[in-house]
Each structure stands twice: as C-alpha cells, then as structure tokens.
Design brief:
This protein is mainly alpha-helical and 132 residues long. It contains 7 helices and 3 strands. This is SCO5389 family protein.
C-alpha cells in the first residue's frame, strides 16, 4: 500500500473530490523519505536555468520504495508538483530533479529534455544501480 489513509480522508474521498492540501498531508505522513527528497529539491527554489537535483541513493529498500511510489504515481507526483510549484523529473530509482515550470518554456527546456530522454537515462546507468 502506498499511502496510510485516515478513515476521515477515505470517507471524504468516497463522497467526492479531496482537496490537494489534505492529499499532500497524507503523502507527507505516509512517505516521509520521499517527502524529504522532493521537498529538498523543490524547496531549494529551482529558478529557470538551474534545476535542483538530488542524487543520493536511498539508505534502504524501504526508502527506495517510498521514492518509487511517490514518483511513479501520477496522482502523488502531480500533488507534489502542485504543492511545491515545480516540475519533477526522475531517473534511476533515486535521481530526482525539480525544474521551474517557467523555465521549461525557455532556459530549462533543453536541460529537461536531456534529463528525461532515453539518452539521459542510458548515460546515468551503472552496475551498482542495476538492481535499484
């Protein structure tokens, strides 16, 4: 299970849409390692032309799983992007970058495209990351 959903939040979801603040609070409490990583890159305030990148492998498989769940889920990733006002990019089970949305239209466009490209993924491979 990805998130620890309180009975109140589940009841709210069963009745209709849930606001982002409640959803993001659930993510923060359920995936603390992922929250720390994303908030560190997003909280650094990426400005156009200089994305912020986290490249430290998680200390354990549990933390790696949190990061994978957070960034592989469209809903969780989208909630984090809206909350922090960034565009997230992800490679190799631990390499997370935050881009300024304004920069994606100009100065960061090439950097972002290179980061999320097949070439970028291949260039970031190494034997020690094979099982991540």
């Amino acid at each position: 299970m990805s998130l620890d959903v309180s009975p109140d939040l589940l009841a709210a979801a069963e009745c209709g849409e849930v606001d982002d603040a409640a959803f993001v609070d659930c993510v923060r409490g359920s995936l603390p390692y992922a929250w720390t990583v994303v908030s560190s890159v997003a909280g650094a305030g990426p400005v156009p032309g200089s994305p912020t990148v986290h490249e430290v492998p998680p200390p354990s498989e549990a933390e790696r799983g949190q990061l994978l769940r957070a960034l592989a889920s469209d809903a969780i990733r989208g909630g984090l992007e809206r909350h922090f006002g960034v565009r997230l990019a992800f490679q190799n089970c631990h390499k997370v970058a935050a881009f300024s949305p304004e920069g994606l239209a100009d100065r960061d466009a090439d950097t972002y495209a290179a980061f999320v490209s097949p070439r970028g993924q291949l260039l970031n491979q190494s034997p020690e990351l094979r099982d991540c």
